[in-house]
Design a protein that fits this description.
Blueprint (H helix, E strand, L loop, with lengths): L8 H4 L5 E2 L4 H12 L5 H17 L14 E7 L6 E8 L6 E4 L2 E8 L2 E8 L4 E10 L3 E6 L7 E8 L3 E8 L8 E4 L3
Parallel strand pairs: 1-2, 7-11
Antiparallel strand pairs: 2-3, 3-10, 4-9, 4-11, 5-8, 5-10, 6-7, 6-9
Helix pairs in contact: 2-3
């Protein structure tokens, strides 16, 4: 549960974000899929299939804006009514996230590049330990379902291992509210 002292991605991420206006059709269809029924694994698979098919025919090279400090976020759409959002992240070698959580739905669609995805479990309110590791080196998609109304679902850290890379993320609420953690020392 979040407290006033809880650190979120918004307090740690200070790169400016782009908002794209030319992806309305993509986002409208995504929103239809995401909100057409209960949030469940079937919905997650439908979102994954839609986004991966779209990525197969749409290059993300127009998002080639990079930073030495952090990955760069570009919103494709955000719905003020449902809170769903989709964004492209542009990565440079060594860009990494903090260990952080997400809202009830979080989908990660890797379009190009090589990434290390580390999975964590909480040890305390502020620390987490790594329990899994996956290297993504081709177009691939992962998604996770968690508890609605919370932002400490699916704790993970992503690091770009290639020169550059792009990923498209879909969240059921504002991802910047994700709770952050320090890695537990054991």
């Amino acid at each position: 549960m979040q407290t006033e002292e809880t650190l979120t991605l918004a307090t740690r991420y200070d790169e400016p974000c782009d908002t794209r206006t030319d992806y309305g059709d993509f986002f409208d269809e995504l929103l239809t899929i995401a909100t057409d029924g209960p949030l469940c694994h079937e919905t997650g698979h439908r979102i994954r299939d839609y986004v991966m098919k779209w990525l197969g025919t749409h290059s993300l090279q127009s998002f080639d804006r990079y930073s030495d400090r952090n990955y760069v976020r570009s919103y494709l759409g955000r719905c003020p009514r449902t809170h769903w959002e989709a964004l492209v992240m542009s990565w440079k070698r060594g860009n990494t996230t903090t260990i952080h959580g997400h809202p009830a739905f979080a989908g990660y669609h890797f379009a190009d590049g090589v990434f290390r995805v580390e999975i964590f479990e909480p040890v305390s309110e502020r620390t987490a330990r790594r329990v899994g590791l996956q290297i993504i080196d081709r177009p691939e998609s992962l998604f996770a379902l968690g508890t609605p109304g919370r932002f400490d679902n699916h704790l993970h850290r992503i690091t770009c291992l290639s020169e550059t890379g792009h990923s498209l993320h879909v969240y059921s609420d504002d991802a910047l509210q994700g709770v952050t953690y320090a890695e537990a020392t054991e």
